[in-house]
């Protein structure tokens, strides 16, 4: 393979470059800002320059680190690594001037760095402004290196101490080799890599089966990059598939097991009892694709419905509310299981497994997912044996989960079965929605440090009365595979499961579960406040507000907090103020891009939510 090309910038006495020039398979290009005459006059510099040239390295003088493309011909512009040790504008330049220097430097690097290349920047302790600096400076008094690099499309992928004493014959100089050298004690080396580019979310259309009809529809934009990702396919190495296969293997030791391999439709139709309509992704068929009234009636005979529609439909008619006839993306696999049970296609004593993505509108939190992979296991048992079967089912899931967690992290998790009545208001969004579907007997919670009390990752339920017979009772367990993957692999943000960055799946070769190491460290966050008047007489739909933020930002909003609520005396008009925090978990997000997102969010709020900005 060709030698790795390494570019060194801002060399003082060239001692760092000289230490690297003997590395096997490396071609060094060492540069400095001064002329050759100025550089050669420094103590030891002439000796280092001779050594570099004798070893075949290139030495280039008068190089401006903010205009790198100008110094190298097109065939020589691709460097595998770029080093810049202790950059500084000089004299009494403050943090703002040095941020500007770094910003121009990173933009220049983007033009000459190889696609898989790295940029190494060594800074004195405290300058970078990351939690790795000890002590850490206040943000406004630091160089804010991660945010500055993000503006040029770079993410901080690693950080470690700059150990000057381990570099042979290295001697740190000061700005332009002044007598006073930089203090390298506690210095840190920041390693940056290219971020994946911002996603270009073009409209996505899907075609799915609804009864005997095929229906085309446009996928909601917030889900455009999450539809048909194939995480559960046979050739997938994604951790959600690995966990699903491990759980299935464990369950097959205790029960005869059958996977429902038929293609489960993405769309449902009907009225949902007890489920908040704002939690559903409603879908309108594409123009010209909507079935006729006669076709719709025929299709609905075989379509997937939620139970107990009659009672709620009657109430809506009495209250004058329109009955929703739109389609919606499936929020659960439970209706599919119930449809199969009603057709008598379930074999008693056999564990049936259904799995696939489900879709739910929800508020923005680190563990709230508008889409996740559900694993639903269903078992028909003889009446009177349901409690022992539930216990056997739960024990098997707990054993497999505990074994996986210990294998990955070496720590035994706390796994508990909690009664449905034992939860107060601390339900996560997954559990809260499951409660709306009803019939829950227990919650399955997995606890790890720092939250040993547990996060709800599954629910155990029995089928409603109309699905019971005099001899059989149907029990089921619904598991959130995405939450399990986060807990088992130490993934703190659900969005990372859906990243397009290849570095995520590279950490799980051939589906092996491992502790995840983030390739984007200390991502910068940007806070914006927005206040507005709510339309008179209307209840503000906060879920729709959060969903709009997801869509406009491309899932770059990590938090939305209500800061203030005000009611104007006399008129009764209500005003709300929210704090919106933008932060990416896997790609570069600069302050300018975040500000543009905030402006688009404000415009879309007026258009789609009918609010009046203040």
TrEMBL record:
Alphabetical keyword list: Aminoacyl-tRNA synthetase, ATP-binding, Ligase, Mitochondrion, Nucleotide-binding, Protein biosynthesis, Transit peptide
Alphabetized GO MF terms: ATP binding; phenylalanine-tRNA ligase activity; rRNA (uridine-N3-)-methyltransferase activity
UniProt-listed Enzyme Commission number(s): 6.1.1.20
Pfam family, one: FDX-ACB
Substrates-to-products reaction catalysed: tRNA(Phe) + L-phenylalanine + ATP = L-phenylalanyl-tRNA(Phe) + AMP + diphosphate + H(+)
Parts of the chain that traverse the membrane: none
Top EC category: ligase
Gene3D superfamilies linked to this entry: Bira Bifunctional Protein, Domain 2 (3.30.930.10), Ferrodoxin-fold anticodon-binding domain (3.30.70.380), Vaccinia Virus protein VP39 (3.40.50.150)
Cross-referenced PROSITE patterns: FDX_ACB
Single GO BP term: translation
Transcription regulation listed as a keyword: no
Compartments, as annotated in UniProt: Mitochondrion matrix
Domain FDX-ACB: 521-614
Cellular component GO terms, alphabetical: mitochondrial matrix
Similarity-based family: Belongs to the class-II aminoacyl-tRNA synthetase family.
Name of protein: phenylalanine--tRNA ligase
Organism of this sequence: Chaetorhynchus papuensis (pygmy drongo)
């Amino acid at each position: 393979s060709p030698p790795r090309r390494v570019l060194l910038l801002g060399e003082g006495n060239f001692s760092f470059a000289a230490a690297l020039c003997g590395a096997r398979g490396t071609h060094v290009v060492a540069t400095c800002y001064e002329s050759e005459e100025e550089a050669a006059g420094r103590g030891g510099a002439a000796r280092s320059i001779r050594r570099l040239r004798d070893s075949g390295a290139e030495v280039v003088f008068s190089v401006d680190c903010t205009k790198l493309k100008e110094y190298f011909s097109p065939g020589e512009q691709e460097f595998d690594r770029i080093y810049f040790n202790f950059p500084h504008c000089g004299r009494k330049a403050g943090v703002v001037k040095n941020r500007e220097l770094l910003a121009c430097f990173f933009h220049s690097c983007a033009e000459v760095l190889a696609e898989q290349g790295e940029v190494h920047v060594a800074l004195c302790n405290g300058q970078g402004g990351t939690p790795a600096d000890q002590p850490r400076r206040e943000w406004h008094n630091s160089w804010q290196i991660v945010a500055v690099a993000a503006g040029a499309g770079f993410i901080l992928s690693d950080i470690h101490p700059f150990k000057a004493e381990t570099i042979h014959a290295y001697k740190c100089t000061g700005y332009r080799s002044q007598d006073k050298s930089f203090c390298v004690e506690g210095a840190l080396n920041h390693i940056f890599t290219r971020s994946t580019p911002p996603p270009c979310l073009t409209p996505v259309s899907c075609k799915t089966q609804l009864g005997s009809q095929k229906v085309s529809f446009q996928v909601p934009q917030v889900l455009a990059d999450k539809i048909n990702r194939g995480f559960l396919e046979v050739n997938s190495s994604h951790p959600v598939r690995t966990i699903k296969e491990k759980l299935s293997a464990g369950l097959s030791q205790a029960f005869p097991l059958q996977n429902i391999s038929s293609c489960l439709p993405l769309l449902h139709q009907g009225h949902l009892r007890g489920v908040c309509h704002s939690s559903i992704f409603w879908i309108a068929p594409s123009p010209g694709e909507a079935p006729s009234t006669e076709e719709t009636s025929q299709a609905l005979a075989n379509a997937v419905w939620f139970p107990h529609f009659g009672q709620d439909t009657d109430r809506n008619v009495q209250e004058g509310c329109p009955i929703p006839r739109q389609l919606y993306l499936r929020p659960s696999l439970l209706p599919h299981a119930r449809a199969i049970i009603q057709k008598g296609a379930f074999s008693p004593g056999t564990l049936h497994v259904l799995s696939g993505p489900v879709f739910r509108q929800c508020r923005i939190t680190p563990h709230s997912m508008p889409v996740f992979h559900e694993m639903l296991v269903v078992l028909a048992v003889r009446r009177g044996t349901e409690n022992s079967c539930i216990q056997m089912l739960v024990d098997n899931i707990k054993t497999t989960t505990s074994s996986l967690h210990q294998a990955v992290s070496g720590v035994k998790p706390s796994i508990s079965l909690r009664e449905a009545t034992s939860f107060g208001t601390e339900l996560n969004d997954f559990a809260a929605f499951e409660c709306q579907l009803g019939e829950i007997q227990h919650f399955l919670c997995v606890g790890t440090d720092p939250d040993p009390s547990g996060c709800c990752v599954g629910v155990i339920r029995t089928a409603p009365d109309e699905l019971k017979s005099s001899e059989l009772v149907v029990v089921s367990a619904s598991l959130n595979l995405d939450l399990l993957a986060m807990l088992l692999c130490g993934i703190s943000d659900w969005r990372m499961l859906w990243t397009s960055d290849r570095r995520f799946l590279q950490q799980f070769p051939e589906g092996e579960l491992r502790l995840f190491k983030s390739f984007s460290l200390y991502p910068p966050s940007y806070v914006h406040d927005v206040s507005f008047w709510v339309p008179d007489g209307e209840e503000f739909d906060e879920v729709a507000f959060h969903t709009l933020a997801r869509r406009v930002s491309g899932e770059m909003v990590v938090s939305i907090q209500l800061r203030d609520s005000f009611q104007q005396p006399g008129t009764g008009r209500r005003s709300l103020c929210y704090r919106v925090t933008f932060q990416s978990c896997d790609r570069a997000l600069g302050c300018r891009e975040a500000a543009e997102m905030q402006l688009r969010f404000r415009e879309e709020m007026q258009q789609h939510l009918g609010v009046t900005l203040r």
